[in-house]
Design brief:
6% of the residues lie in helices and 30% in strands. It has 67 residues and is mostly beta strands. The chain has a three-stranded antiparallel β-sheet, with no helix packed on it. A hairpin with a 2-residue loop joins strand 2 and strand 3.
Length: 67
């Protein structure tokens, strides 16, 4: 098993980068980039699954803003 990232604590900020052009998914934890977690991902829909009490904000970056 490959270790990826670090254990999360209350108040940590997790950033998820889903690149639908290059078909990759990467994470940052408190601003520290852990690189690609997955490559060659293909999906028609992107969704977010959260634990109770979690908060999220979705931002679409320029390449996807006007496909």
């Amino acid at each position: 098993m490959t270790v990826y990232g670090t254990a999360l604590q209350d108040g940590d900020v997790v950033t998820v980068h889903i690149d639908l052009v290059n078909c990759t998914c990467a994470f940052l934890i408190n601003g520290e980039d852990y690189g690609n977690a997955w490559e060659d991902i293909y999906a028609d829909y992107v969704y977010v699954l959260l634990c109770p009490g979690a908060r999220y904000r979705i931002r679409i970056h320029e390449p996807m803003a006007n496909p």
